[in-house]
C-alpha cells in the first residue's frame, strides 16, 4: 500500500496528540471538573423532597425550558434527574465548542500558516492529515466522555445509576464528534480558518435557536434541530439510547462528506467561490480606522444580524412565558386580574434580565476577537508596513478599540431591540422602552471588560488569550449561579455580576458613571503601556 | 555641505539576556545608497525595526532627518518608504487596494507612476492577497514604496522572492531614485546585489558593525573565483601575487584547465598574465558574502600574528 491515501495517519495522530496534549488536558479538566463538581454538590442542594419539587416546578416554566430544555422526567424526581436536565444543554454546548476549536485548529488553521503544505510534501497520504484529525477528535471526545461518566459514577447522586452516567458521558462524546465533523465540513467550504470557525458557530447558533423555539412551542419538533437530540436522552429516568444512534448517523454523514470534499479541492482553497477584488481602493479605505472596519465588514454584518435574530427568537417566546394562567392556573385563579398582570409582567422582566446577561456576554465575543487582533494581526506581519507609514500607534490602537466598542454596543442594542420588538408583539404588559434599561445597565460594564482586554493586549501579549475567561466564566455564573446556589462572591467576581437585574430593576446611574470612568482609565493606561513597548514580531 | 539622513550611534537592543545589537554606529549621507549586509540573524532587521519605531532601542541613539526615530516616528515616516523582507498582506484585500491604502496612509495618491510600476512589475492588482505568491506580495510592497514620494527609502532584503527579470526592474528603479538624489538603505545578504547599486557598505555580524566603507576600500577583503581553460600550459600562474588555492587538472581533451582564487585588488595583473597563455574559456564567480567574512577573519588572525 505504498500509495495509500491514508499513509502515515498513525504517525500524524501521535504528532498531533503530542502537540495538543496541554490544550487537551485543559479542556478535560474544565469539562470533567464542571460535571463532577456540580454532581458532587447536587445532593446537598436538592436533598429534600421540598427542594426537589420546587426546582422541578421552576424547570417546567417556559423561561427555564428556553434556557435548559424541557423537563420531561416523570415523578418521583431525584437529585440526579434534576442534575441531568439542568446540565445537558450547557454541557452539550461546551462539547460542541471544544470540537469546533480542535477541528478548525488542526485543519484549516494548519493550511493557513503553511504547515500542511510541508506535511503533504512528505510521504503522507492525501487524506492522512484530515483522518488523523478525525481520529484525534474521537480520542479526545472518548477520553473526556469516559472521564465525565466516571466522575458522575464517583459522585453517586441520589437517583443516579450506572447506565445513566455512561449514557450521559458517551452521548456527550458522540454529540461532540457530531459538531467536530460538522466543523471539518465547514473547513472544506471556507477558504480560511476564521471563515471556517464563523461558519461553524453560525450553524451551531442556528441549531441552538431552533431547539429553543421548538422546546417552548412544541418539543416534538426538537428532534429535527440536531442540537435538540442531546435533550432527548432522558438520563437517569428512561435512559434512551436512540438519540445517540441518530447522532452517530449524522456524524458519519458529516465526516464522510468532509472527506469527499477534501479530495475534491486543492490545498489552501475553499469550495465556496472567491471573487476577484477591486483594482483600486475605494474612497472610504484611507486610514487605519476604515482599514479595520473594512477588514471586519463581513463578520460585522454576520454578528449584527445574528444578535438581532437571537433577540427576536427569545422575544417571541415572551407570550408563553408571561402567561401565568397557562403555566400555573391554580395560582392564577387565586390572584385577581390586576395581580395576574403584575405577575406576568414580573415573569417577563425577570426572564428579560437573565437574557440581558446572555446578550451582554455574546456582545463581548466579537469585541474581544477584535481587540486581540491588535497583537494577532501584528504577529501575522500585516501591520509592519502600516507602522512604517505616518500612522501613530495612538491611531492604530484606538482604531481597533473603537471598532470593538461599536461591536459591543451594536450587538447588545440589536439583541435587545429584537427581543423588545418580538416581546411587545406577544405580550401587552411590558413596553418596548423598558427593555432598554438593560442597554444602559450593561453597556458600561462591557466597556470595562474591553478595558481589561486592552490591558492584557498591552501588558501580556503572549498570554492575552486568558481574557476569554471573562465571558466563559460570566456565562457559567449566570447560567448556574442560582441553580447551583453559588455564593454571592462567586457571582460578583465577574464584571457581569456588578450590574443589578435590569430591566426588572431601575438603572443604577451612579454605577454607570463609575464604570464609564473606570473603562476610560483602563483604555488610557493600556494605550500608554502599548505605546512604550516593542511591537509583537512575527 | 554633506548632511546625514540617518545617524545611528551606539545603538543597543537586548531581548531579555540576548544582546541583539551591541552598540552599532553608522550614518547615511544625503543622496547615498548604503548597503547593509550581513548573514541571517546578524541584526539587520532588528536595526531596521528600531529605525521604524517598531522596536524600542535599549540604548544609544538613532535619528532620521535629525529626528528621533522613536519619539518623532510619525513625522519621520512622512518622508520615508519601507519594504520588509517578508511581506504579509491582509488576505481578503486585493493588491490594488493595499497599494492605494499604503499611499493614502502617507497622504499620497495613486498616480500615473503607480500604474506604470504595476505594469513594470507585471502585477495583477485585482487578485486577493490570499492568492499571491511570496514574490507577488513583495511586488505589492515595492510598487507602493517606489510610487511614494519620499526622501529616504529602506529596503530589507527586497528581492528574496523575485525572479531575475523582476530583480532587474527593482535595480532599475533604485538607480532612478539614486539619480533623483534620494537616500537609500538597502539591506541584503547577497553581495553582488549590493555591489551593483551601493556607494557605501556596512557589514554587520553578531550585532556588531565590523566594517564600513566604499566597496573599493573593501577590495582587499574579496576574492574572485576563476575557472580558466587555455591553449598554452599555465606555467607560473600559481606563483603570481594574489593567487590562492591554485588547482590544475587535465581534462579529456588534454586541455590546460585550472581553478583558483584571486584577491580582487590583484585581478588586473593576473588577467594580463593569463591572456598571454591564449584563453579558450574563462569563468569568474563573484565573491560571496561568506568568502568576505572568511577573509575578514583570516586577515584579523594574520594581523594578530603579525604583531
From TrEMBL, chain A:
Keyword vocabulary terms for this entry: Membrane, Transmembrane, Transmembrane helix
Source lineage: Bacteria, Bacillati, Bacillota, Bacilli, Lactobacillales
Membrane-spanning intervals of the chain: 21-40, 80-104, 137-155, 167-190, 196-214, 244-261, 300-319, 347-372, 397-419, 439-460, 467-486, 506-530
Protein name: ABC transporter, permease protein
This protein's record includes keyword Transmembrane: yes
From TrEMBL, chain B:
Record domain ABC transporter: where: 6-231
Organism field: Liquorilactobacillus satsumensis DSM 16230 = JCM 12392
Record-given protein name: ABC transporter ATP-binding protein
Keywords: ATP-binding, Nucleotide-binding, Transport
GO function term, MF aspect, one: ATP hydrolysis activity
InterPro entries (UniProt xref): AAA+_ATPase, ABC_transporter-like_ATP-bd, ABC_transporter-like_CS, ABC_transporter_ATP-binding, DrrA1/2-like_C, P-loop_NTPase
PANTHER family listed in its UniProt record: ABC TRANSPORTER ATP-BINDING PROTEIN (PTHR42711), ABC TRANSPORTER ATP-BINDING PROTEIN NATA (PTHR42711:SF5)
Family the entry assigns: Belongs to the ABC transporter superfamily.
Taxonomic lineage from the root: Bacteria, Bacillati, Bacillota, Bacilli, Lactobacillales
Amino acid at each position: 500500500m505504498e500509495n495509500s491515501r491514508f499513509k502515515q495517519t498513525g504517525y500524524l495522530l501521535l504528532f498531533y496528540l503530542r502537540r495538543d496534549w496541554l490544550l487537551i488536558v485543559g479542556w478535560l479538566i474544565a469539562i470533567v471538573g464542571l460535571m463532577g463538581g456540580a454532581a458532587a454538590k447536587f445532593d446537598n442542594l436538592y436533598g429534600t423532597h421540598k427542594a426537589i419539587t420546587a426546582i422541578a416546578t421552576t424547570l417546567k416554566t417556559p423561561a427555564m425550558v428556553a434556557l435548559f430544555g424541557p423537563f420531561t422526567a416523570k415523578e418521583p424526581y431525584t437529585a440526579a434527574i434534576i442534575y441531568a436536565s439542568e446540565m445537558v444543554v450547557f454541557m452539550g454546548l461546551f462539547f460542541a465548542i471544544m470540537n469546533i476549536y480542535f477541528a478548525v485548529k488542526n485543519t484549516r488553521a494548519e493550511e493557513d500558516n503553511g504547515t500542511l503544505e510541508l506535511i503533504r510534501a512528505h510521504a503522507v497520504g492525501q487524506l492522512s492529515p484530515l483522518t488523523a484529525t478525525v481520529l484525534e477528535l474521537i480520542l479526545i471526545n472518548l477520553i473526556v466522555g469516559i472521564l465525565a461518566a466516571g466522575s458522575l459514577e464517583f459522585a453517586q447522586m441520589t437517583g443516579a445509576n450506572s447506565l445513566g452516567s455512561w449514557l450521559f458521558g458517551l452521548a456527550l462524546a458522540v454529540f461532540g464528534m457530531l459538531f467536530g465533523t460538522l466543523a471539518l465540513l465547514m473547513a472544506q467550504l471556507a477558504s480560511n480558518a476564521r471563515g471556517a470557525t464563523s461558519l461553524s458557530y453560525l450553524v451551531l447558533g442556528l441549531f441552538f435557536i431552533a431547539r429553543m423555539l421548538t422546546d417552548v412551542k412544541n418539543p416534538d419538533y426538537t428532534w429535527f434541530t440536531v442540537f435538540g437530540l442531546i435533550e432527548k436522552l432522558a438520563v437517569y429516568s428512561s435512559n434512551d439510547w436512540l438519540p445517540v444512534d441518530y447522532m452517530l448517523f449524522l456524524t458519519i454523514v458529516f465526516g464522510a462528506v468532509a472527506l469527499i470534499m477534501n479530495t475534491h479541492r486543492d490545498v489552501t482553497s475553499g469550495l465556496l467561490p472567491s471573487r476577484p477584488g477591486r483594482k483600486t481602493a475605494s474612497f472610504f479605505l484611507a486610514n487605519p480606522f476604515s482599514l479595520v472596519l473594512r477588514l471586519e465588514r463581513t463578520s460585522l454584518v454576520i454578528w449584527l444580524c445574528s444578535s438581532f435574530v437571537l433577540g427576536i427568537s427569545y422575544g417571541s417566546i415572551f407570550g408563553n412565558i408571561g402567561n401565568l394562567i397557562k403555566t400555573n392556573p391554580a395560582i392564577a385563579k387565586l390572584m385577581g386580574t390586576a395581580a395576574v398582570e403584575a405577575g406576568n409582567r414580573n415573569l417577563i422582566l425577570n426572564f428579560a434580565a437573565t437574557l440581558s446577561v446572555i446578550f451582554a456576554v455574546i456582545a463581548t465575543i466579537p469585541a474581544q476577537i477584535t481587540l486581540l487582533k491588535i497583537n494577532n494581526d501584528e504577529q501575522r506581519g500585516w501591520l509592519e508596513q502600516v507602522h512604517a507609514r505616518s500612522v501613530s500607534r495612538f491611531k492604530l490602537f484606538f482604531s481597533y478599540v473603537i471598532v470593538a466598542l461599536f461591536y459591543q454596543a451594536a450587538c447588545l442594542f440589536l439583541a435587545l431591540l429584537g427581543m423588545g420588538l418580538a416581546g411587545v408583539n406577544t405580550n401587552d404588559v411590558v413596553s418596548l422602552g423598558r427593555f432598554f434599561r438593560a442597554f444602559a445597565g450593561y453597556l458600561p460594564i462591557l466597556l470595562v471588560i474591553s478595558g481589561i482586554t486592552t490591558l492584557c493586549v498591552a501588558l501580556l501579549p503572549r498570554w492575552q488569550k486568558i481574557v476569554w475567561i471573562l465571558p466563559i466564566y460570566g456565562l457559567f455564573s449566570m447560567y448556574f449561579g442560582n441553580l447551583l446556589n453559588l455564593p454571592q462572591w462567586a457571582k460578583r467576581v465577574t464584571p457581569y455580576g456588578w450590574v443589578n437585574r435590569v430591566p426588572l430593576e431601575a438603572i443604577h446611574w451612579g454605577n454607570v458613571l463609575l464604570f464609564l470612568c473606570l473603562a476610560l482609565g483602563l483604555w488610557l493606561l493600556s494605550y500608554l503601556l502599548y505605546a512604550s513597548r516593542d511591537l509583537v514580531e512575527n | 555641505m554633506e548632511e546625514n539622513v540617518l545617524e545611528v550611534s551606539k545603538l543597543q537592543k537586548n531581548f531579555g539576556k540576548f544582546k541583539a545589537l551591541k552598540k552599532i554606529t553608522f550614518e547615511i549621507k544625503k543622496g547615498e545608497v548604503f548597503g547593509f549586509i550581513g548573514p541571517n540573524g546578524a541584526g539587520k532587521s532588528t536595526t531596521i525595526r528600531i529605525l521604524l519605531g517598531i522596536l524600542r532601542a535599549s540604548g544609544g541613539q538613532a535619528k532620521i532627518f535629525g529626528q528621533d526615530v522613536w519619539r518623532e516616528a510619525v513625522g519621520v515616516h512622512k518622508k520615508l518608504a519601507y519594504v520588509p523582507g517578508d511581506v504579509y498582506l491582509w488576505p481578503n484585500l486585493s493588491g490594488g487596494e493595499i497599494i492605494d491604502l499604503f499611499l493614502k496612509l502617507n497622504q499620497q495618491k495613486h498616480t500615473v507612476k503607480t500604474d506604470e510600476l504595476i505594469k513594470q512589475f507585471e502585477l495583477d492588482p485585482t487578485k486577493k492577497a490570499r492568492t499571491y505568491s511570496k514574490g507577488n506580495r513583495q511586488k505589492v510592497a515595492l510598487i507602493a514604496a517606489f510610487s511614494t514620494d519620499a526622501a529616504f527609502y529602506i529596503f530589507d532584503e527586497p528581492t528574496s522572492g523575485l525572479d531575475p527579470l523582476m530583480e532587474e526592474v527593482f535595480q532599475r528603479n533604485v538607480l532612478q531614485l539614486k539619480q533623483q538624489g534620494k537616500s537609500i538603505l538597502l539591506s541584503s545578504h547577497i553581495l553582488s546585489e549590493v555591489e551593483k547599486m551601493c556607494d557605501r557598505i556596512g557589514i554587520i555580524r553578531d550585532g556588531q558593525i565590523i566594517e564600513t566603507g566604499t566597496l573599493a576600500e573593501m577590495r582587499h577583503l574579496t576574492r574572485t573565483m576563476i575557472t580558466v581553460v587555455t591553449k598554452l600550459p599555465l606555467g607560473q600562474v600559481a606563483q603570481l601575487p594574489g593567487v590562492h588555492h591554485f588547482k590544475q587538472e587535465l581534462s579529456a581533451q588534454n586541455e590546460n584547465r585550472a581553478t583558483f582564487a584571486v584577491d580582487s585588488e590583484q585581478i588586473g595583473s593576473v588577467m594580463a598574465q593569463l591572456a598571454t597563455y591564449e584563453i579558450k574559456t574563462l569563468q569568474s564567480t563573484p565573491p560571496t558574502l561568506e568568502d568576505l567574512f572568511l577573509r575578514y577573519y583570516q586577515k584579523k588572525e594574520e594581523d594578530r600574528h603579525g604583531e
